[in-house]
């Protein structure tokens, strides 16, 4: 299965791919990706619908905690494979022609 | 004949109508070609300051109306902070089922977390909260609702579209009524706002309706083209 990957989606996917076992909630993802709520939530809803990530409600007592239960997201096994493939394809598309990445060399030559 | 006879209300509703202030010079009344073109000409002649007043009144009236009717009732037990109230306005653009799923399980907990985050000052949190809510109110909620798994029934979608029109009409009516009331109190010059506001909002409403209709017509064709 293929998913539509925009730059904003790629930011979200990269966050999940970097730490596949981590549970993340909306505000945390917003801070990490610098995306606005108007962009992030449609992306999360789409990725959840496509089975790339799975959402689950936090199991807490809101009264005891003094805050409402958050919705946590984790990347699924299939989602991890799809996300890696999509990010690799995006990297290939956006790579500057004729350049290859060489470990230890910075663009300034240092 | 008085100075303001034969105005927009006459043109739109007939010369016998006297429910709205009349503000067209009698020299132009009844002239051929003085219909829509004349109306646009008059609207163009309305000073910017009056448009600003009209816009502010419209915004205040719209917010007050929606807060009173739909929002205030629901937020009484939670919080009355403006970002939360603004976020509740997403109810206007999402179905009840999706609103419960998105607002109660995702948006509100995250906004609550944002507003109680001690790493930032209270003012910064408030601004971030407003930004969070506005981004969802101004389109984010609709896009998120479209992507959400629970699809609305076709009849429900039609009802939602109809409801949007109803809300728009309510806002228009409330705005015009408010400005009309103010106009009666303050006197000459203000009546321009009533006509200008009413017609401008009606045009906007019509435009939005046409865009929604065209988009809905185009969408099934796009789906067919996809493999």
Description:
Chain A is mostly helical. Helices cover 50% and strands 11% of the residues of chain A. Chain A has a three-stranded antiparallel beta sheet with strand order 1-3-2. The longest helix of chain A is centred in the last third of the chain and has 18 residues, at 77-94. Chain A is elongated. Chain A starts with 6 loop residues before the first helix and ends in a 16-residue tail after the last helix. The model of chain A has no long low-confidence stretch (mean pLDDT 85). Chain B is mainly α and 227 residues long. Chain B is globular and about 55 Å long. Chain B has eight helices and no strands. The longest helix of chain B has 35 residues, at 191-225. The chains are: A mainly alpha (110), B mainly alpha (227). The interface between A and B is medium-sized, with 22 and 29 residues.
What's this entry about, in short?
The complex is a heterodimer of chains A (110) and B (227). Chain A contains 5 helices and 3 strands; from the N terminus they run H-E-H-H-E-H-E-H.
Low-confidence stretches of chain A: none
Indicate the structural class of chain B: mainly alpha
* Strand residue percentage of chain A: 5-15%
Compute the gyration radius of chain A: what is it?
Answer: 17 Å
What's the total number of strands of chain A? 3
Query: How big a fraction of the residues of chain B is strand?
Result: under 5%
Multimerization state:
heterodimer
SSE layout:
The complex is a heterodimer of chains A (110) and B (227).
Chain A: H1 7-18, E1 24-25, H2 26-33, H3 37-49, E2 53-57, H4 62-65, E3 71-75, H5 77-94
Antiparallel strand pairs in A: 1-3, 2-3
Helix pairs in contact in A: 1-5, 2-3
Chain B: H1 8-13, H2 36-45, H3 48-75, H4 82-88, H5 96-115, H6 122-147, H7 154-186, H8 191-225
Features:
heterodimer; A: 110 residues; mainly alpha; three-stranded antiparallel beta sheet; 5 helices; 50% helix; B: 227 residues; 8 helices; disordered N terminus; disordered C terminus
